[in-house]
Design goal:
16 helices; Aldehyde Dehydrogenase, Chain A, domain 1; Aldehyde Dehydrogenase, Chain A, domain 2; 5-stranded parallel beta sheet; single chain; binds nicotinamide-adenine-dinucleotide; alpha/beta
């Protein structure tokens, strides 16, 4: 194997020492963390708390108050008040330059407290530093992109047209008002940024519902927002379980728009719930990513690149590659190289130097993944690496070994998103068959083709049913291009990180004005 392909490694941890600032934040003077509503810390009427833990050590990091129906009501009222102000000076009316200045002030405060926010991702979210640092950089990148978009795309009146002899018509674009972001646990800082910056810059007030496994970064950012000088009620943070706090939000008619990122089943449920009272929604959901490897590809180099993507955040990334279709001719070499890549992964605690595969987020995920591994074998997948529980000396976390299987085109042995370092590798005799198999899933988030023949790769990539189609790369995102799912992986909504994301957070009305009739 060439040295160049050996150099392609999984994302890796550098030693991370938890900063004092994070520990102090977690400790919160010995009190549980309240939600943040109207600029105040709120304990919650349910008098319920939950602990957030480090998944790699099971150490309790902080205790959090769960927000109930009353707090959702209060946050909606606070958001509405902040949105309208006294009719002229609400958040909606603040000039875009002032909104950008406040947002960039928040970004600077996040950068000042970088280590504490990295600790949120590494300790609360279970990430290795190399990934956490990349995620952290998205705070500034998202803010800068959407400030530029907000300055370029005007809200308010569109151009006027004469629609009848005495009637003039035009469009009027305005923010929804109070919008909610329901966030999953796998990319808390990135997904909170992807929600709040376009939503705030288009003039909305926001309710952030972080995942119950990773509430710390949203609470930290909420605290910094107050320091940055956001008016009370513009940014509210409501931690709690999905079936309670999240459900109360989905049922609340005062929330005009919901941005949901999470699993397809929960997204479908929320859409049905909020549709009953006319709340609009955008959804970014899970995938079961595919990669097609053509016969001209270098099996060793591509196996390692695909391995790196499969293992991004230990496979807990929405568009992760879980299904590989590889040309028969190079399949054995490819499988050998994947076996080597995955068996070399250093399993360990996410804050320890050199760790490449850390613990999964919680015990439910652990059981789900282990039963998916068994199910794949029951469905006929042949284990190349059999998975199973892993032990890490001195740590009590939710550790699992990587699992890869050889599959054949007649087997449907990997039908659903597994969310771990897990993949089936299916040798195929022709590319059309590979494409048909890659597309034979209700998901449609991300897929890639690996080949030296770029134009053939592009032609094939365009035929995926996925929202993000890549050639010789995977998991790439760029501001200006939509990141959106097809099938059960997404919609409605235009996806994230593009101009349409900004306009998703606005409603468009038609205005007609007629001359007053002569008496
Ligand atoms: P999840 O669907 O279980 O939870 C997501 C959020 O929804 C959490 O905040 C949860 O508390 C909340 N929730 C749960 N039930 C609810 C209800 N009844 N009403 C309102 N809110 C409710 O997902 P998860 O396990 O946290 O995250 C992993 C999933 O997210 C995977 O499927 C992954 O692929 C997907 N994801 C997609 C993207 C994308 O951009 N497409 C990005 C990241 C993660």
């Amino acid at each position: 194997m060439s040295t160049a392909s050996k150099e392609i490694q999984a994302l890796t941890a550098t030693q991370f020492t938890t900063p004092e600032k994070f520990l102090k934040f977690c400790q919160n003077d010995g009190k549980p963390h309240g939600g943040i509503i109207n600029g105040q810390s709120v304990r919650g009427s349910m008098n319920a708390t939950f602990d957030t833990i480090d998944p790699g050590s099971l150490e309790t990091l902080a205790t959090i108050c769960e927000m109930g129906q009353d707090e959702v009501d209060a946050a909606v009222i606070a958001g509405q008040r902040a949105f309208h102000g006294n009719g002229v000076n609400g958040w909606r009316d603040i000039p875009v330059e002032e909104k950008c200045a406040l947002i960039m002030k928040l970004v600077e405060l996040c950068e000042r407290d970088r280590d504490a926010l990295l600790a949120c991702e590494i300790r609360d979210g279970g990430k290795v530093s190399e990934l956490a640092e990349g995620d952290f950089a998205q705070i500034r990148a998202t803010a800068e992109y959407f400030c530029e978009v907000a300055k370029r795309i005007p809200l308010g009146d569109g151009s006027k047209m004469q629609v009848a002899d005495n009637i003039e018509g035009y469009t009027y674009r305005e923010p929804w008002g109070v919008v909610a972001g329901i966030i999953p646990w796998n990319y808390p800082i990135v997904l909170t940024s992807w929600f709040i910056f376009p939503a705030l810059l288009s003039g909305n007030c926001v309710l952030i519902k972080p995942a119950e496994d990773t509430p710390l970064s949203a609470l930290y950012i909420g605290k910094l927002a107050e320091e940055a000088g956001f008016p009370p009620g513009v940014i509210n943070v409501l931690p709690g379980r999905g079936e309670l706090t999240g459900q109360f939000m989905a049922e609340h008619p005062g929330i005009r728009y919901i941005s949901f990122t999470g699993s397809p089943g929960v997204g479908q449920h929320i859409l049905r719930t909020c549709d009953r009272h006319g709340t609009r929604m955008k959804r970014e959901m899970g995938g079961n990513g595919a990669a097609i490897v053509l016969e001209d590809a270098d099996p060793q180099a591509v196996a390692r690149m695909i391995g790196r993507h499969t293992n991004q955040h230990f496979g807990q990334t929405c568009c992760t590659i879980h299904r590989v279709f590889v040309a028969d001719k190079i399949a054995d070499d490819f499988i050998d190289a994947q076996r080597e890549f995955f068996s070399e992964l250093k399993i360990g605690y996410q804050a320890d130097e050199g760790t490449q595969l850390g613990a999964v987020i919680n015990s439910t995920q652990r059981s789900r993944i282990l039963s998916a591994q068994q199910d794949t074998v029951t469905r006929g997948g042949q284990p190349i690496l059999a998975g199973g529980a892993a032990e890490v000396a001195g740590r009590d976390g939710y550790y699992i070994k990587p699992a890869i299987y050889r599959a054949s085109p007649d087997l449907n042995c990997n039908p659903a998103e597994v969310f771990h370092a897990f993949a089936t590798i299916c040798p195929v005799t022709d590319t059309e068959q590979a494409l048909q198999l890659a597309n034979s899933t209700p998901y449609g988030l991300g897929a890639s083709v690996w080949t030296k023949d770029i134009s053939r790769g592009v032609e094939l990539a365009k035929r995926f049913r996925d929202g993000t189609c890549q050639v010789n790369c995977h998991n790439t995102i760029a501001y200006g291009l939509p990141y959106a799912g097809q099938g059960i992986s997404g919609g409605p909504g235009a996806g994230v990180n593009c101009e349409e994301t900004f306009t998703d957070y606005t409603e468009l009305k038609a205005i007609y004005v007629a001359d007053y009739p002569d008496s």
